Amino acid sequence: MHTILPILNRRTLLRTSGALALAAGAATVSTILPGLAGGTAAEASPATPAVGVYPFMIGAFQTYSVSDGGGPAPNFPVYPVFTGPAAPKEEVEALPESHFLPRDLARGDINNLPIDTGKNRVPFDTGAAGLMGPLGGHLPSRLAAAGLDPSTIDTVVLSHGHFDHIGGILSAEGKLNYPNATCVMAEDEWAFWAADDVEAKLVAAGVPDGLRSVLLPAARANLAAIKDKITLVKAGVDVVPGVSTVATHGHTPGHVAFRVSSGDLELTNIVDVVHDYVTGMAHPEWTPTADQDPGQAAATRAKLLDQSATDRTLTMAYHFPFPGLGHVARKHSAYEWVPAPWVW
Fold first, then answer.
1. What is the Cα–Cα distance from 61 to 157, expressed in whole angstroms?
2. What letters, b where the CB count within 10 A reaches 16 and e where it falls short, cover 39-60?
3. I need a surface site. Which of 198, 255, 256, 262 has the fewest CB within 10 A?
4. Strand partners, 122
5. How many CA atoms lie within 13 A of 54 on its CB side?
6. H helices of 133-289, where?
7. What is the pLDDT of residue 8?
8. What is the reported pLDDT for 74?
């Protein structure tokens, strides 16, 4: 078994007068069987490894990165999907190339963060189901492989109403994948998607036709299915003990990120504040076409990245290469993504 020291962040630094720390996590592809990672000075996670599942600890919380799917996404070129059309195309394409990536082909990774606090079993978002073809839809089976039977999930926390985050509420047969769970969403996000004029608002925000044609039916079907199971919250509140929401509006009107805290350890799940780990870090001012309020999204991105870099907090991102765990580091006038090392 491995021994891992606590992660260093500003709160831990103040409490421990500069104690050293190493982050638990990994950066590899989902086709490799993940090892076990510890998040405290105690033993590493006892969870059984499974394909597409990376178990680790946040304090006393058994935590996982679970891949709903991922791989090259032909319909999502880096320019303009992840940068917006105003970004200089040649510079956009040069950045991935400098990181040994295709100039015009992004990845479509979907990383879920289920946690078992000992009292609650909570996944953050539900994946894309079949809405991204073979790229998504693996979350329920991989949760079960990790020992988290979907029927034992008691709380499903939803960051926002986009199809790759709520598409897995329902199975292909139209049944609830998490039949015994209460669902939680920010009240302003729910109000946006439940409004009668939501399509007009998406048009006014400049959301492309192709994206709207997927967003609207997914939101109507999946959110309608949980209307009697939904709990609406304000940003900044605890969803369950140790899990709180963070207002990160801009990508959608009520988009939230999450903080998971146990003992001296903390993880920030930034969800869709940053989509691409190369261009989004190097140029947080470049705005993906899916950001409904580009100005607010860019300001949110800059603020959260600055905070993550300052606090040195372990970070998880929904669309970064699996398992999406690492740290945000400052580089020149912007940032770079530093994947957390794999712990076998």
1. 16
2. bbeeebbebebbebbbbbbbbe
3. 198
4. 115
5. 31
6. 139-145, 163-166, 187-194, 198-204, 209-225, 279-282
7. 36
8. 66
Low-confidence residues of the chain: pLDDT under 50: 1-44
DSSP label at residue 151 = G
Which DSSP category does 49 fall into? Answer: P
Q: What would the DSSP string read from start to end of 59-123?
A: TTEEEEEEEEE--EETT--IIIIIT-TTS-HHHHHHHHHHTTS-SS-EE--EEE--EE-SS-EE-
Q: Indicate the residue type of 136.
A: G
pLDDT at position 48: 52
d(CA 164, CA 68): 10
Per-residue pLDDT of 164-191, as tens digits, reads 999 999 999 999 999 999 999 999 999 9
In this structure, how many other beta carbons lie within 10 angstroms of the beta carbon of residue 195? 11
Q: How far apart are CA 100 and CA 138, in angstroms?
A: 28
Which of 63, 17, 16 minimizes the C-alpha distance to 39?
A: 63
Query: Hey, what amino acid is at 237?
Result: V
Beta bridge partners of 231: 184
From residue 343, alpha-carbon distances to 14, 22, 53, 267, 277 in Å are 27, 11, 13, 17, 21
Q: β-strand 106-107 against 265-271: which pairing, if any?
A: unpaired
Q: Please give the pLDDT value at position 64.
A: 96
Cis amide linkage into residue 80, ω under 30° from 0: yes
Measure the CA–CA gap between 161 and 207, rounded to whole angstroms: 14
Q: Please, are residues 77 and 288 in contact by the beta-carbon 8 Å criterion?
A: no
What pLDDT score was predicted for residue 115? 97
This prediction has a pTM of: 0.85
Which of 196, 218, 211 is closest to 251 using CA atoms?
Answer: 211
Instruction: Quote the CA–CA distance of 51 and 60 in Å, as a whole number.
Output: 24
